[in-house]
Design brief:
Blueprint lengths: L14 H31 L1 H7 L2 H17 L1 H22 L6 H28 L3
Helix pairs in contact: 1-2, 3-4, 4-5
Length: 132
Amino acid sequence: MPEIERNSNEGKLTSDEAKGLVEMFKYLLNAYGQFAETLGNIQQTHKEAFASMFSLESAIRLPEMLNELSKKQPELGKLLTEILIKLSAFLPRLNNLMNLSAKEKVELGEHLKLLAKDFDKIREWIDKANGE
């Protein structure tokens, strides 16, 4: 493949830049594909839970449910509260992702990956509660 040279007048990319863009789109499509597939599978197998999870009623009852959960299962309640607080801090930046600087995007990505690990802790808690 011939070298793609940068020409500021024509907006051409170097081959390294082109490869980087291809990798970015590949990763993005794979991540969205995995998300859509997982979401669809959950919606098919757990219809009622899925519907209630995204209902306005659930959003309104969330503080009350977290309070009840914290009383019954303090460890899980604390973890869920921490996740929601972190998530609420990141949502405004997610909504404006393309307007963030490169550094801010990298930092946001790092924070979201750490937040994803918190969900591993929930899964571990569920396994522990089920005696697994």
